[in-house]
Amino acid sequence: MLVSGKAKRDEQIMRNRLNRNKSLWVRLNQNVPAWLIFNCRNRYGILFAAATVLLGYIYYIRASENRFSFMRQ
Q1: Whose CB among 28, 45, 53, 67 lies 3.0–4.6 Å from 39's, allowing a Cys bridge?
Q2: Does residue 37 lie within any of the structural domains?
Q3: How many domains are there within the chain?
Q4: Do 29 and 36 meet the contact criterion of CB atoms below 8 Å apart?
């Protein structure tokens, strides 16, 4: 596969930027629990954490709505 010089340079710049952001993220979160840092270190960790929080919030709302549904039956 033949890659042009501009694409290779852009890829290198993006990789350097990603590594710089990752190191900054790890520096900012040294006092956060280790599983959170591990979650947000990969690409989909933040998405996974946000989806988990959202699903838990929706489930909590539905559970609080249906808490006394057994008395209405």
Answers
A1: 45
A2: no
A3: 2
A4: yes
